[in-house]
Design a protein that fits this description.
It comes from Syphacia muris. One of its GO terms (cellular component) is nucleolar ribonuclease P complex. This is Ribonucleases P/MRP protein subunit POP1. Pfam families: POP1_N (PF06978). By secondary structure, this protein is an alpha+beta fold. The protein has three domains: 69 residues, no CATH class; 55 residues, no CATH class; 107 residues, TATA-Binding Protein (2-Layer Sandwich), CATH 3.30.310. 34% of the residues lie in helices and 19% in strands. It is built from twelve helices and ten strands. It has a five-stranded antiparallel β-sheet with strand order 6-7-8-5-9, covered by helices on one side. It has a three-stranded mixed β-sheet with strand order 1-3-2. The chain has a two-stranded antiparallel ribbon with strand order 4-10. Strand 7 and strand 8 form a beta hairpin. The chain is elongated and about 125 Å long.
Length: 306
Amino acid sequence: MSWGQLDDELLSSQKRVIDVNKFVETNIKQVSELLQAVDNDNLVGREVTKGPRTVLQRLPRHMRRRAMSYNVKRLPRRRRSYALQFIKASRHRKKPPSRFRRRRPRNLLQAYARRNRKNIWLETHIWHAKRFFMIERWGYKIPFQSFQRAFRPTYRDSVHHCVIQDMSFLRCIQIVMGDRAPVLSALHAFFSPLACLTPASKFAEDGRFEVSAFFYKPNEYPKGFIGPIRFMWSANRDGTHCLVIWTHPSISDQVLEHLIVHLNASKLDTVEGGKGLTADSDTGGFNDISYCKNEYLSNSLNCTVS
């Protein structure tokens, strides 16, 4: 028997008729799902979907717009009330305020206060940010390098005018005392007359000059060097004396700790009993460099010189 005769015999032995009723009964679930997806009157023409349909999917394709997903006014009027429920429940990013509103002075101050929480801004930050590369150092945002590629303009201004450097990132430590003698004897352990001037020197004690010095650990000169500082004496109206010490932020905590321990002082804002120590990091300072003239310096500081 050939293969062709075998195929004809097998086909003739099987029924060529399907009982529709029995077929539908056995596959009723699949047929219902097919009718729901294809032959559904609620669906848009030529549209097949299995999941829940959105508001846009209920519209014909020629009426759909991309803006309908966030602007309900682009939908037909009879669909807007239904679409509002889904738009309110969605997590779309709200439209930001206009640039004019964001640039209002009050909003700018709030934005600046929020941005300088991590790193403190100098008083001249806005001016420097437009002209200098800004870096983050020691908890401050300080100017690092000018955008100018040439140094001749700076040199010309320093010779003929005035150049001011913002040093307000330096931290100020104030030592308030009644009698200067015991404090001067205690401060002698931090300085060396061989290396620099001390607070007890005649050049510094009258309070007319700000003096540069080297600060050491108590009685550890010359090995216990901490860093350079600047100090200046000032007299208060109540008869007390004040020694103002300017320190770099990288060594200010170490200097303050040594002063509190060695002077047996208390870190207070108001000092009682004649001797105490206060720390202030909000006091700004300017260091003038060059052969500066009083008129240029006074104009930059908005003050008058008598």
